Amino acid sequence: MGYSLGVDLGTTFAAAAMSRDDQVEMVTLGNRSVVMPTVVALRDDGTVLTGEAAMRRAASHPDRAATGFKRRLGDPTPMLLGGERFTAVELLSIVLRDVLARVTATEGAPPDRVVLTHPANWGPFRRGLFEEVPALAGLSDIVTITEPEAAAAHYAASRELEDGQVVAVYDLGGGTFDVTVLRKRPSGIDILGVPEGIERLGGIDFDEAVLSHVDNSAGGALRELDARDPQVMVALARLRMDCVLAKESLSTDTETTVPVFLPGRHFEVPITRAEFEDLVRAQVESTVGALARTLRSAQVEPDELSAVLLVGGSSRIPLVAEMVSEELGRPTVVDTHPKYAVALGAATHLAPATAVSAAPARSRSTRDATGTAPAADAAPSAPPHPDPDPPAPDIPAPSPTLAPTPDAATSASSGATQGEQPDGPPPAPQPPAAPASTPAAAPPPPPDFPAPVAAAFDTPATGYPVRSFGAPPEAQPPSDRPRRVRRALLLTGLAAVVLVIGTTLAVKLTSNGPEEGTSSAQSGPPDLRPANPSQQAPPDTPPPSLVATATIPVGQQPGRVAITPDGGRAYVTNFGSDTVSVVGSGFGTETIRVGQQPSVVAIAPNGRFAYVTGNGSGDVSVLNTSERAIVATVKVGIRPSGLAVTPDGGHVYVASQASAAVAVIDTATNTVTTTIPASEPAGVAITPDGRYAYVTNFGIGIGPGNVSVIDTSSNSITATIPAGVTPGSIAISPDGAHAYVTNFSSNTVTVIDTARRAVTSTVPVGQNPANLAVTPDSQHILVTNQDDNTLSVLDAGSDTVVTTVPIGSQPNGIAIAPDGRTGYVTNSGTGTITRFKIG
């Protein structure tokens, strides 16, 4: 009797459930647990181990094991296991192959159909890569759905969910977070609004928080170790496992201890539940914020929710249910076994009673309601065909997807359906699929899976010898991995690298030809293709797609740029010509003479005035933007280098570096009302609510600087936050959650959590980062790197550089229009400004 199999290839654990005769139940994959660790290890003889056996091997030979590789899907950099290169696709396929083998051995026959799950916020690029996983595992016909959809299907099948009721699925797993709002309909389940997720947030990060607590409690003992020492590697691998156990025990206990066995030193570190909650509170708060945003996108009020379904192993942390309930005032439902909910829902998915109508089963081509594919889908790696009656589009990514340039869209057509924006480089080219007119054929017979790997021991288990990946031992020596699979993987990897180098990494700035205002010496925008794309980190959200539209001559040594609230004009300070250039939407420019060496410009919220610092004169010039004339000059100090206008337009905060003070200008009288002492202040940014001004301080100019937080109601410094060497430009995200600081001499960007007033990350960027701007959706940060003539794009969700592109000579100022569609970068070396469109 046939059965369907649902598989959840999680970041830390893999789970499987089977559906037969309307009965759904879990399939045991491990010796001591229903689930198996998503771990792959390579023995010295070439044998590949998975699950508990691989976990054991990771403790003694961490350099020969891989964990958390699901997070690396889309990263072209391979992982090394014992000197051999593996891609994330290959490692996931190894785990899936052994899951299928174990189930087949238990049931006596392979499954009729297989449903795989993936995070809801994956774009078409990673979904395309993920669909290569079953092909390498020997499957030719699969169905894929999102993890929240699967969890909702399980919830609807196991509880009485009435038609019209709305639930939110909060999925916090080992490596990713997803949240989706769903409504029960007679025909199935509808997805409401835009699902949101945080790609790199889950149990792995909470484990790292415990490890950091241990290190801090031990006075930095772990940081002092030589990570290359084999004994240290083993000790740290064991310590990480103990940190995981401590984290899990704190879900049921209020305190525990972490044993630490370092070479020549043994001790214990106590940790309480309250201490652990303090370590992870900010991360849990970010998931609650994502939940609130998803409800807003779905236009659902919290009181309309029947419940919030908590799934994923990390949702068992008591703080999660506490903070979700406190935020929404709604009950939370924690599955008895939250690790199993997604797998159970995947097995339930194909049953008509629980079909998810908002997201049909996906594979490379269209499938019908039962998951049966037409003949054109027989080759799972084939690119999709244009369809005169295409299926419903995929659910959009959490942040607005920006349209690719025409050539980028063409190059990515093999990895995304028509009209979708890829979230990374396109996958390798595949053989053409059968014509759309080919008659439908029956699904191919299920493959014959080899015997499973012994789970608990490195030696053979009863009845099942340990095998090498790809072939039974009698057909191939253990040290010889299958040539056919390896050849396919190598070709795929090489093709992907070539495509990555030859195309863009989602962010591509291209020329649309010369436009009005383009310099005669430079007939068009510069070549702004990504530099070193293979070194970029995979984005949590799709990087913005930028298209350079013109390079416009302005004055000598252009510095900063500010855009009017309506987005119609850009004001540019020209340090070398004592002028401000006003660039209009039609690229016409106007020049206004101001004070000596204008440095920074800011525009009032109502757009009526522009404020410009004169570095040589020590003044702030007040420009009437309608009259294009200076109406006031305010003396503020020596070498004013940064300023910002409060959201209500009532005050301007000006940092005067050489005066070691911040001057506060009352815009009603254009006079300085307050002077606040500071240490070589450089940049100023004000929170969206106007309550605080953040000021960067060079300090002594050669060591690390800091950021002062000024309470604008009392004009007193309430906090000091460390930064890098010579912190300069600062920007606060439109949502007010983070402040970003360029550290000119240390080539980094400091990320500050404004709620905790603490540094959460230090991100390496290019050489001498000068200025930065945050996109209006708070998802990405654009940084100009003055010394290597590049623009770095940071992903706010993961605090990583997702791409670096060449820009003009000595890029300096950068600004993004309030609608998020237009931006400008000044090029100090050529006396020009580059205008680009976003999307």
Features:
single chain; 839 residues; alpha+beta; six-stranded mixed sheet; five-stranded mixed sheet; 19% helix; elongated
Structural account:
The chain is an alpha+beta fold. It has 12 helices and 46 strands. Strands 1, 2, 3, 4, 10 and 11 form a 6-stranded mixed sheet that branches. Strands 14-13-12-17-18 form a 5-stranded mixed sheet, sandwiched between helices. A 4-stranded antiparallel sheet has the order 19-46-45-44, with no helix packed on it. A hairpin with a 2-residue loop joins strand 8 (79-81) and strand 9 (84-86). Helix 6 packs across helix 7 (230-249) and helix 8 (273-298) crosses helix 9 (318-328). The longest helix is centred in the middle third of the chain and has 26 residues, at 273-298. The model is unreliable at 352-537 (pLDDT under 50).
